[in-house]
Amino acid sequence: MASRDHRGRLACLAFLFLLPVPDLAQTELTALIASAGSRAAISLDGVWSVIVDPYESGLAGRYFENAKPKTRSELFEYDFDHSAKLRVPGDWNTQRESLLFYEGPLWYQRYFPYHKRPGVRTFLYFGAANYAARVWLNGAKLGEHVGGFTAFNFEVSEQIVEGENSLVVEVDNTRRGDAVPAGHTDWWNYGGLTRPVRLLEVPEMFVKTYVVQLARGRSDLIEGFVELAGAKAGTAVRVAIPEIGVHQTVVVDGSGRAALRVPARVELWSPEKPRLYRVLIAAGEDNIADEIGFRTIETRGTAILLNGHQVFLRGISLHEEAPFRSGRAFSPEDDGTLLTWARELGCNFVRLAHYPHNEDMVRLADRLGLLVWEEVPVYWDLDWQNPSVLQEAKLELRDMVARDQNRAAIVFWSLSNETPVSAARNDFLRTLAAYARTLDGTRLITSASDKSEAVDSQTMALNDPLGELLDVIGLNEYIGWYGKRRPEDATELRWRFAYSKPVIISEFGGDALYGMHADQETRFSEEYQANLYRRQLEMLSRIPQLAGMSPWLLMDFRSPRRNLPGIQDSYNRKGLISDRGQRKQAFYILQDFYRTKAGEAAGAH
Ligand code: GCB
Question: Is the pLDDT of residue 512 over 70?
Fold first, then answer.
C-alpha cells in the first residue's frame, strides 16, 4: 500500500543517490560470471511492464511487491499489469520517444512460470543494467548492483516459487559525480536492462568459476584453476580437452579451489587461424563445455609479441552502438555486423571502448580472430579521492576480468581513458594497475592517455607518468581536428615518448557526415576526414615504437554533446561508417593502409 510517510520518502531519496558501493572484500565474486555464457539458460527476455518513476515514488509505494487491491476501497497508485511495456534486453531511450533523454529510476516487472525440482539451485543472471539496479523476486529483495556494463547474478533458490513468479527490477541511470564513469561522457547514457536476463540452474555443488589458459610466456603449459561452490575439500574436478588428449582430475582445497597445471601441445590461436578447443569441466553433477583458444602475449622492448612473433595491431575503436537503428547494441546480429565491418576494414584488432561490451561480442571476436582491448569506464574525470569510487572501479575491473578471462582474443586490460593528471589520479591508477595484475598476470595492462604537449613546432611528447605503470602505452591524439594544428601539419610532426615501451595510437580521427562532399579544407566533409587519415597515417608510420592503432572509430554513435544541426544532430560523426552503414572515403584509406600492413606481415613470416 502506498506510504504517505514523508520521512520514509526522504530517506529513500537519500538512499537512492548515495547507494553505497559494497566493500570489495565483502563482495563475493558473482557466482556464475565466468560460466554463464557456457550454460543452458531459461531466457527472461521479452516484453516487460514498466513504470517511469522520476520522483522515486516506487520505493515508498512498494512497487517491488507488485501487490493488488484486495477490496474496492484499498488505495494503490501503481499497476504493472496495465502499465506501458518495453523490450528486454534494450535501452529505454530508443524504445520510446519520451524517454530519449530520460535519466532516473524506472521500474521493470514481469511474470514467469517456474517448475521447482529438488537438488536444483537457481540463479537469476543479468548481462548488465545501467547504472544501478535493485532486484526483488516475489516481493523479497535479492540485492543491488552498481556499474552499468558488468554482469551480476543472485541465487534465488529460496525466493522462487512453483508456478507463477513476479520479478521486479528498479534501474536508475542518474549520472553521479561519485560513479564510474562520472557525470560527463561522450556517449549516450542509455538506461535500462540493456543485456539479457536469464535463469540458470545448477546442482547443489557447481562450478563457480574457472580459468584455463597458457601460463605466462609458455606455449606448452596450460595453467589455471577451477573453483567449486558448495564443495568439501577433496572433491574431484575433471578437466578435459579431448582434441589434445588431456583428461585431468584435480581435487579442491578447503576453499573449493583446485589449481590446474597441464603440459600440452596446442595449435596456437591467432587472427590468421583462430583455433578454439572444446574444454570440458565436470564436478559431481555439474558439466560445463567451453570453447577456449590458447596463445601467448608479451612485450619485448617496444614490440608486442603474439605467440612469440612481433605483431602490428591493425585496429579500430568501437562503441557498443547498434548499427542501423541506434541504441545500445546487444544482439548477435549487432555484434556480427560491427565485427564483420572491422574485419572488412582489414583489422586484426578492436578496441572495445569505453566499457566492457556484451559477452557475446568478445566470444565472437574469439571466433573471428580479432584481438581485443577491453576497458573499464574510468573515463575523463572521476572523484579520485573518494574511496568508494576506487572501490567501484576495482569491482568493475574484477567482474570484467572474471567474465572474459578465458577468451584468447583479449590481450589488453585497459584501466582508463583520458584521465587528467594529478597526484590523486596517479595514485588511483597505480592501485588499479596493481590490482589488475593480481587478477590476471598473463595479459598486458594499458590505458589511453591524451597528455601530450608540443616540445617545439615539430615535436610532440607524451607526458603522462601513467606510462610507468603500463606494459603498452595508449595515446589518443587529435592532430588535425582539435587544437590549432591542421591535418597537413601532421606531415612534419614527430613524436617522443618517455618510456621505451610499445605504443598504440588508441585514438585519432575527425568527424565527417556521410555524403557531405567539399574540398579537404571543409570541416565535416568526407574529403576533410580522408585527408586527415592520409596525413595521420604518414605521421604515425614514422614512430619507431608504434605497435598498432585503433582510430576513432568504426561507426558514428549518439552523443548529446554533438549539437551541430544538419551535420551532427546528436551524433559523433567520427565513424568511418555512418550509423546507417554507409562507408565514408576514409574507410578505404585505412583499408588500403591495413592491406599493405597485412601484406608486409605475411611477407615477414
Ligand atoms: C576522445 C574520447 C572519446 C571521444 C572522442 C571525440 O578523446 O576518448 O570518447 O568520443 O575523443 O570524438 O572527441
Answer: yes
Which comes out higher in pLDDT, residue 157 or 24?
Answer: 157
Dist. CA 498 → ligand 1 center (Å): 23
Q: Can you tell me the mean pLDDT for 250-278? A: 97
Domains of the chain in start order, with CATH, are: 24-203 (2.60.120.260), 206-295 (2.60.40.10), 307-604 (3.20.20.80)
Instruction: Identify the residue whose C-alpha is closest to ligand 1 atom 13.
Output: 186
Instruction: Look up residue 69 and give its three cell numbers.
Output: 487491491
3-state secondary structure of 56: coil
DSSP, collapsed to helix, strand or coil, labels residue 127 as coil
Give 373's DSSP letter: E
Read off the pLDDT of residues 572-594 as tens digits, 9 standing for 90 and up.
999 999 999 999 999 999 999 99
Instruction: Give the predicted TM-score (pTM) of the model.
Output: 0.95
Which grid coordinates belong to 303? 614490440
Candidates 142, 196, 130; CA nearest to 166 is 142
Question: Does the structure show a pLDDT above 60 at 6?
Answer: no
Residue nearest to atom 7 of ligand 1 (CA): 476
Among candidates 458, 465, 553, which has minimal Cα distance to 505? 553
Under 8 Å between Cβ of 78 and 106:
no
Residue position matching grid coordinates 608479451: 298
Closest by CA to 289, choosing from 320, 243, 327, is: 243
Distance 377 CA to ligand 1 centre (A): 13
Cell of 78: 501503481
- Binding pocket residue ranges, ligand 1, CB within 6 Å: 186, 354, 417-418, 450, 476, 507, 552, 572, 574
Tell me the best of 552, 555, 559 to mutate to test the pocket of ligand 1, counting ligand atoms within 8 Å of each CB and taking the most. Answer: 552
Percentage of the chain lying above the pLDDT 90 cut: 93
200 and 125 in contact (C-beta within 8 Å)? yes
Q: Which three cell numbers stand for residue 210?
A: 574457472
Q: State the distance between the two ends of the chain, measured CA to CA, in whole angstroms.
A: 72
Q: State the average pLDDT for the chain.
A: 94
Q: How far is the CA of 109 from the centre of ligand 1 (A)?
A: 36
User: Helices (DSSP H) in 345-439: which residue ranges?
Assistant: 359-368, 387-404, 423-439
Which helix or strand (DSSP H or E) is residue 365 part of?
A: helix 359-368
